[in-house]
From TrEMBL:
It comes from marine sediment metagenome. InterPro entries: Metal-dep_hydrolase_composite (IPR011059). Gene3D superfamilies: Urease, subunit C, domain 1. One of its GO terms (molecular function) is hydrolase activity, acting on carbon-nitrogen (but not peptide) bonds. This is Amidohydrolase-related domain-containing protein.
Length: 41
């Protein structure tokens, strides 16, 4: 699979007290990860 970056996505994460905060979301092989390497689109 490939890497994907969703720019300025709204993140809702009650465990980390995020309520609609704009963040970049990184996906590698279908799993959300902290960062991806340079070939992400």
């Amino acid at each position: 699979m490939s890497n994907l970056i969703i720019k300025n996505g709204l993140v809702y994460d009650p465990l980390n007290k995020l309520d609609g905060e704009k963040k970049d979301i990184f996906i590698k092989d279908g799993v959300i990860v902290e960062k991806v390497n340079g070939d992400a689109k």
